[in-house]
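Figure-free illustration: sequence to structure, shown twice.
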Amino acid sequence: MKIELILIGMLMLVAFAGISYAYGFDNQESSYEYSWTTAICSGNSCQDFLIVCNDKEVVDMQPLTGLVTFSDGWEDPRGEDEKRLC
């Protein structure tokens, strides 16, 4: 009798997990949210930001550091694809 109750309980648990898993995927939004840090520069002055993106759209930007100013003539060594926000 004890083994039967344990097996029934395990079967119910597996069934519940399967239903929850399937339901979650059916109702999931197709968006992808992620965050990362990057410097945003203007001329020779830069500031680090935490960027939160949803797919390719900026959701939030929070400054992490103060403004840093480099010497005159400094150029950002990153390529255009490295300067993108999302």
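We now fold a second protein in the same way, so the two outputs can be compared directly.
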Amino acid sequence: MKVTFKYNIGTYSGTLNGMTYGNFRDGNLCIGRQWVQPLVTPQQTALGTIAKNLSDLYAEASSAWKADLKTYTHKYGKEYVGKTELPPSSYALFMKLLYAYRDFAAPNVDLDTLAFGDLETLVAPFLTIKGAVDAGLLPAVTGFDALIAHI
């Protein structure tokens, strides 16, 4: 249904008081609908398990490696992301890196059970950011050769 707000509020996006609102047409139209609890599916549960495990892996990474990833992320944002788009966060590129590793380098790796100690035994190419770029898991940016801190 089309929604009109009081107090000079044009549109609103989000969920409030059991309703979900969305703005369209550059803020000229607001549509509301009743909020419905989404069904929990096995796929959502699996993705949630993977996300929790990858979050734990990221927390265990060294601060020097995370600093290199932030440097890479900054350069990636300048070289690959348009001026009208938001660049990804370091954590988002970490997630992209591990999914790329699973899909292209090691399809037998389960991201939901991967432990930090397994990274050394697997000889993962992303132990350094330079190694991840050299392996083709991340696109090259200027100066990536200097990003050699160990995870």
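Summary for the second example: The two ends are 51 Å apart (CA to CA).
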